[in-house]
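A reminder before we start the practical. When you read a complex entry, don't treat the lines as separate problems. The point of joint prediction is that each chain is placed relative to the others, so the output describes one connected object in space. Small molecules and nucleic acid strands, if listed, are placed in the same frame. In the example below there are two entries. Take a minute to note the order of the lines before looking further.
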Amino acid sequence: MKIYKIALLSSWLLAFTNSYSQEINWRNTDSSSSHFVSINFGADYSSYYGLSYGYKIKNKFAPIVIGNDFNVSFGKQLTDDWKSRTTIQTELWHNKHFSWSLKTGFIVKRFESEIARLVNLGADITTIFGFSKPKGGIGLVIHYDRSSSTHIKNKLLKEYYPEIKDGWYKTSGGNFKFGIRGNYSIKKWNTYLNIGKTYGQNFKDNPTLPFYLDIAIQKQF
Amino acid sequence: MKKLFFYSFFGVLFLTACHREDIATPGLLVPLTVDQDNSIPSLSINGTRLHVESFGNPTDPIVIVIHGGPGGDYRSMLSAAQLAYNGYFVVFYDQRGSGLSKREDKSQYEKADAVQLFINDLDGIVNHFKLQDTQKVFLAGHSWGAMLATGYINQHPEKISGAILAEPGGFTWTQTQEYLDRSNHIKFFSEALNNAIFPEQIFAGRSEHEVLDYKASYFGAFENAPGNTIGNSGPYPFWRNGAVAFNTLIDNADKNGFDFTTRLNQFPTKILFLYSEFNTAYGLDWAKTVSSPYPNVDVQLLNGTGHEMYYFGWNNLYPKALTYLNNLK
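Here is the predicted structure of the whole assembly.
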């Protein structure tokens, strides 16, 4: 029972202490900061707001930050649509002014409307290359996410089509994103702006809202 | 930690091992179409196979019911079958690539004369069901269906004895765009918009028609969400959203435009033109503007309903339609 409570509490904390874009300005991290807490909002398919948390693992080889983003869609129903992403990221290479970083994540999305309820599992990878200094920087972002499995529980559609099949479905597709990330830092505070264009993985069936935008404010300590 | 790893590892293993369906498999998430299920009533016309049903005596005056969309289906208009009890032969059909009709390749809707294909399909329906030269044919169109009916009358005025037109967006593309701008009023942070577009990130970058049609079910709910501009009091039943037909025809109209009014002055018969009480994007002024190319038109308000009046407002629509038809029978 104790383990169950700890697991539940950990899940809750993981879910509510992180953001869509757990960003890191690698040039503004120092040995005294291990924690990164962000709030963010934006539009990525739907409009959303979120929290994020990241923890820097100290080691001899490369800086590594593990974290979690949690987004909730705007709207009257607070908890019906959300996206949680558990990430691990590192800086692969840098010199005086340039940096190349990589982030991978495991994503859980939940959606519910009168039409159906969806629970989607997937993964993503993001790479950023650009100019980076302690006070700020700008970089090019390439992102790909792919759905792995989706559980569909049809609601209204079940009334209209009783033979419709609920259950687990294989991959339902994926998205590419190409954009720019800008950031500005003052002491232990960082701000991030992500903006770019979204494509369906086949570059033909693209979303109704083809752009994404994310603004985040982060405190490191 | 070991336990956490153990459960995570076997959880993922379980998920990947358990049976998962492919979302594009016909019949799993959207109904089968006439070419996939021979038990569905159909008719082969103009190079495609349409889902078609008829009610009443085939020698009675014909009423052809034309659904909205494009990409919709006639399921929500089936109340109109009641006209069969009043001495009319009522014909329903799902338009090309829509509802339970056969899916067609996107390229069909990309051609400059794609709308003509839909007018020719309707002509095929008229010619198929009209048994005698003296048999009268009436059109009952809703929304895009009323636009299509007008496009047909514009080309074949001699074949039609009357029409009931319910809230066509416009009879030219410019006019239709103006209406769509009003009717698709978007609130960026609303639940309705997010419910419409959030699933697009899950069903992303797959071109199979079954996937696109299923995804369109979510997007289609936007127009019926609480507070919608067009006054629908909730969702209404449908078989399948023809996503490819809808998206490609809208793009086509945006590129090539259309004008269904060029010969309407040659149609002297009175038209019954209906607009709904709750559709705040329509109204009497717009009804008069849109219907003005017809020389003889009776514009009437339908109380107690929004845009989807064949479903939510049939009890009020029925007596008006019947009176109109009986006067021209």
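Discuss with your neighbour: The two ends of chain B are 81 Å apart (CA to CA). What might explain this?
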